[in-house]
Amino acid sequence: MSQDSRFLAGRGAVVTGGGRGIGEVIAEELASKGASVVVSARSTEQIDRVASRLREAGHEAYAVACDVSDRESVAALASAAVEKLGKVDVLVNNAGVAGSAPLKALELDHWNHMMAVNATGTYLVSKAFASAMAARGWGRIVNIASVTSRVGTPYISAYTASKHAVLGFSRAIASELIDKGVTVNCICPGYVDTEMTVQSIANVTSRTQLNDEEALRAILDTVGQRRLIAPQEVAHLTSALCHEHAGGTTGQAIVMDAGGLLA
Ligand code: NAP
Atom 8 in ligand 1: which residue has the minimum CA distance? Predict the structure, then answer.
């Protein structure tokens, strides 16, 4: 294996929401590029399973439970990650929740939950790791935002607002960290083939006459997307943004929607 294929060797990485879906595949991708990885989420069974699988494949990986919306829990993640990895050079803010409701039925609890996990979680975890990256003069923060960071579509206004917040926050801190060797970028996927999309389909079928296939088509049509994105596509772009030579790319919102926004 060439040295460049393990370009994250010696780097410590934290992936939130790493117990399943996109985060699980990102953790695998970063580990395959040589990073030592802390896999984090609330479900200990899921993060233990992912970390064990990575260790069995010969990688250094640890599971650390954390609720990203809880300040104390994030502080505990930060200490545990530094204890296990020595230093954290790469942070992937991937933990997220989704939900839908038309405005007339949008409850405050739903709104607060989206904001707490997606927006406040990204702020809390970034704050916990960014200063040490800046002090060492190197860091990569990749935020898994959404195509809804860039557009508005019906029935997901709370999710959309939270993902717009992630993008605004990312751009602002990217400009603060620009001279410190730390990049901050957002990947903005359209619908990805994970449990979250399965839930979105179930929400549509429970409220309409549509079957699963028709519901998926209807969801994809809201953003002009021709096909689902594979989690591996998001993971590959994440690791590319963490490359040594990606230092000139910061404050960006990279849309990955199989051409939807071009439509
Ligand atoms: P998923 O399969 O539902 O996984 C979400 C992950 O986030 C899980 O590991 C979950 O674990 C974790 N999580 C949820 N709430 C958390 C909290 N309070 N604290 C810590 N971890 C938490 O979803 P996914 O599709 O992989 O989505 C991953 C990210 O991509 C999300 O930010 C999502 O908004 C974004 N995204 C997804 C799509 C899509 O179509 N799937 C499209 C665009 C963007 P626990 O529940 O165990 O904590």
Answer: 17
